[in-house]
């Protein structure tokens, strides 16, 4: 066996596995990011609501997701939660593509917990007078949030949000532990069949590096644009 | 749930020990502590190299840090599993593999913590040290690093929490730490995945959460001390 032969791996069904794995990783990332961001906004609203019970819930939610390994969160959703459902539902779930949905839920909730904290510190970095001034010129609470505070908070929270997105992207690899065929899973599979360990892992690594780099670069570009937009306004 | 703890509690706590190999929570903590102890000095080196006046060191450390940060920990574990035996010439245990992978991971993340710590030391300190005739090495060793390391202790301990959470990934190469132990308990019980994984999550939560509370306290006291020391002292 020659020392290095990427051609042996980049062909036929192996190439197909890698491509499908890449698509799966990116799909899972995009789906979890969108859901995570929306849930993060909801958590932020609960946390800042002024209602004791809601605040405690949001706090507990964040603490749980920060202090338990993500792998365990995925296991709890994938192996544990279906057990709580009625038998008929369990059978139905097992018949579907349950890996994707359950991992998606686990990753989205985890990501939401971290993003809500990023957004909250963005919001807290704004001076109190912003809200007071907005209310004083007659905006309602929601208007001042939507028009004045949240756009600024987003700008402040942008760098940590990019970091969190990167971390979410890498976390999609955890899906392989429950048998979802994303990139890491595909490289493992190729390694098992061809014994070309180096090539298989190198291709998976290249995929993560390229995507991480693209994400970071996009984040940098957008944060520059946001800063200029902030100065112009 | 009590009966699971009753029957398998000891197994989850320390595996077969003292009649067999150490496992469970004890092994999790062992791997995390070993990871911290080994990666800390290396992270200091990375941090110093990242802020070094020599371009070569900066570039080299920068490439390593960014390469590691772009990869999921799972993939680092697979790489360690494959590369380390090739480099040292004989096979290694799963535990060593996980420790190697986690050290590599922390080298990048903790290295960035150290870098931030070094950069946060006021420039005047360095100039004063150089001004009284200290070499660059002396300045680092006697002036910058001692202050930087005290200031960044909370962040380094946060990395320790991260290490504890990441040991769970040893599961993928069958290292008998807490997550794998729980997985095996679940495989024996078969009918109670939710209870088993809930116990698992609760265990991690208790440890990491209490650690993070303690770190928060430490951070406050360090900040208080920093601000109470008069500038002329």
Describe what this molecule looks like in 3D:
The complex is a heterodimer of chains A (233) and B (233). With 233 residues, chain A is mainly α. Helix content of chain A is 84%, strand content 0%. Chain A is built from ten helices and no strands. In chain A, helix 2 runs antiparallel to helix 3. Chain B has one domain (2-228): MetI-like (MetI-like fold). Helices cover 79% and strands 0% of the residues of chain B. Chain B contains ten helices and no strands. Chain B has helices at residues 2-14, 24-50, 55-69, 73-88, 94-119, 123-131, 136-151, 153-166, 178-189, 193-228. Chain B is globular. The mean pLDDT of chain B is 93.
The helix/strand class of chain A is mainly alpha
Total helices of chain A: the number is: 10
Q: What distance separates the N and C termini of chain A?
A: 63 Å
In terms of per-residue confidence, which ranges of chain B show pLDDT below 50 for 5 or more consecutive residues? none
The value of Rg of chain B in angstroms is: 21 Å
Question: Based on DSSP secondary structure assignment, what is the total number of beta strands of chain B?
Answer: 0
Distance between the termini of chain B: 57 Å
Assess the beta-strand content of chain B as a share of residues. Answer: under 5%
How many beta-strand runs of chain A? 0
Give the number of domains of chain B.
1
Instruction: Please tell me the total number of domains of chain A.
Output: 1
User: From the alpha-carbon coordinates, what is the Rg of chain A to the nearest angstrom?
Assistant: 21 Å
Summarize the biggest pleated sheet of chain B. Answer: none
Q: CATH topology of chain B, anyone?
A: MetI-like fold
Identify the overall geometry of chain B. Answer: globular
CATH top level of chain A? Mainly Alpha
| Overall residue-averaged pLDDT value of chain A | 92
Question: Tally the helices of chain B: what do you get?
Answer: 10
CATH superfamily of chain A: MetI-like
